[in-house]
Amino acid sequence: MIEYFNETQYFSETQTLAAVPSLSHSQLDVFLAEGLIAAHPSPEGAMFRAVDVARLALLCDLAEHFDLEGDALAVVIELIDQLHSTRQHLRAMAQALEVEPQDLRARVGARFIGLLAV
Length: 118
Prior knowledge:
By secondary structure, the protein is mainly alpha-helical. It is built from five helices and two strands. A two-stranded antiparallel sheet has the order 1-2. The protein is elongated and about 55 Å long. It starts with 9 loop residues before the first strand and ends with a helix.
């Protein structure tokens, strides 16, 4: 099994297809053509990062289990991308606040909770 979050490792098309058993070569071509995944060019051919392999597994699951394809699949994956980005921003904000004085963190936390209650 591939370690999905190792960003320094790249996988060939053959390795990628082996890592995602539900992914066919033709389905990979469709995902690439629709811009749902991007290959990284190399002299050996198309290469995929571990996060790309995880994304391909998710795309296959969505297509298979929820019968999504084309535009519907693109909309769902875009929403998932937006959610992931929002989580990264929230995590960065929390890390920035961790180094601030306790009184400031308390005020920001109280204000945040107040805004959520609206």
